[in-house]
Design a protein that fits this description.
There is one protein chain. The protein is of the alpha+beta class and 97 residues long. The chain has one domain. It has a four-stranded antiparallel β-sheet, sandwiched between helices. The longest helix has 16 residues. The chain is globular. The relative contact order is 0.19.
């Protein structure tokens, strides 16, 4: 698992072989909720074609839905605990570089 892109205090993009994961922080004023998500094949292709801009748009759309009270897009694609742990380990390794 490697951290390959990030926007400080907003999102991180991770790659583990062919699978991609998005760690996203949703700031709801009084509380920040963090979500570790699995990207779909379409989202992976968008990233490969558009790069960082594709992930920025995806993250913005997820936050916009959350502000409207709709967390279903994030709840339906939560990463497994093993992947979440690997994401945390990759983030710590990246931060220590």
């Amino acid at each position: 698992m490697n951290l390959i892109e990030h926007e400080a205090h907003f999102w991180e993009l991770y790659q583990d072989f062919e699978q991609y994961y998005l760690g996203i922080a949703v700031d709801m004023s009084s509380v920040v909720s963090c979500w570790d998500l699995v990207l779909t094949e379409d989202e992976i292709q968008t990233y490969k074609q558009q790069g960082r801009a594709g992930i920025q748009e995806l993250a913005k759309s997820m936050v916009a839905a959350a502000y409207k009270g709709d967390f279903s897009i994030m709840e339906s694609r939560l990463a497994e605990p093993e992947a979440q742990q690997a994401m945390q380990t990759a983030f710590k390794a990246w931060r220590e570089q």
